[in-house]
Design goal:
A hairpin with a 4-residue loop joins strand 13 and strand 14. This protein starts with a helix and ends in a 6-residue tail after the last strand. The strands form three sheets. Strands 1-5-2-4-3-6 form a six-stranded mixed β-barrel. It has a five-stranded antiparallel beta sheet with strand order 11-12-8-7-15, with no helix packed on it. The protein has a four-stranded antiparallel beta sheet with strand order 10-9-13-14, with no helix packed on it. It has three helices and 15 strands. It has two domains: about 120 residues, RlpA-like domain (Barwin-like endoglucanases, Beta Barrel); about 90 residues, Expansin, cellulose-binding-like domain (Immunoglobulin-like). By secondary structure, the chain is mainly beta.
């Protein structure tokens, strides 16, 4: 059932990784990490807003695969989605009956500012589903992840047009760069949550060196195959602390 259909059923509702990374190839990284229980506040800011729910499957505008075994997910209003900057971030949402940590996987263009559209199962952890719409507070926290960050190369990518998505990250991603000669070149983040080099990363005989930066300034480095392979997920060597 689509979001619009659920809104029609519940008149009180106002419309408004992640897949397991498969390892193909990887090498160096700049800092070590591992699995994390998550839930650590990343800032002191706690926002007030509203929550509704829809028939989420883990996929959406962020470009992730469906995650039937991980449905504590949500869509953000357009302002909070911020052109995909929120994708993969985790939010601690507190409602009338409890709290839940959700991962942002989608946008909700019709939602007002500070509106979280949760999966049905996530909403049920904070409120009675019959309420349809409730007041909440929410705060950005670290995500509970297992293993290292991963890089998904978009279908259609090559050395001449390259799009890469960072997956399975504990912290929100600020930017992705690739090494060209002695310098790093920042890739443009698109609103569908891929970092894109329109003219491609070119030939990389020693491998494609990536540097990913979290919103708190931590960086990780990994090396992907120098010949870009489309529609593959490549596991990195480390995770943010």
């Amino acid at each position: 059932m689509k979001r619009a259909a659920l809104v029609a059923i519940a008149a009180v509702i106002v419309a408004c990784g992640s897949s397991d990374p498969s390892s193909s190839s990887s090498s160096s990284s700049s800092s070590s990490g591992g699995s994390s229980s998550g839930g650590t506040p990343l800032s002191a800011e706690v926002k007030s807003g509203v929550a509704t729910y829809y028939d989420a499957d883990g996929a959406g505008n962020c470009g992730y695969d469906p995650s039937p075994n991980d449905l504590d997910v949500a869509a953000f209003d357009s302002a909070s989605y911020a052109g995909s900057a929120a994708c993969g971030s985790c939010q601690l949402v507190k409602g009338p009956k409890g709290s839940v940590v959700v991962r942002i996987v989608d946008s909700c263009p019709d939602c007002d500012k500070n509106h979280l559209d949760l999966s049905q199962s996530a909403f049920a952890k904070i409120a009675d589903p019959s309420a349809g719409r409730v007041s909440v507070t929410y705060q950005t926290v670290s995500c509970a992840v297992t293993g290292n960050v991963a890089y998904h190369v978009k279908d259609g990518s090559s050395n001449y047009w390259t799009a890469i998505q960072v997956r399975n990250h504990k912290l929100p991603i600020a930017k992705l760069e690739y090494k060209k000669g002695a310098s790093y070149v920042e890739m443009k983040r698109e609103d569908y949550n891929y970092f894109v080099e329109p003219s491609g990363v070119g030939d990389q005989p020693s491998g494609l060196v990536l540097r990913v930066t979290a919103t708190d300034g931590q960086t990780l480095e990994d090396t992907l195959p120098g010949t870009v392979q489309a529609d593959v997920t490549i596991q990195g060597k480390s995770q943010f602390k």
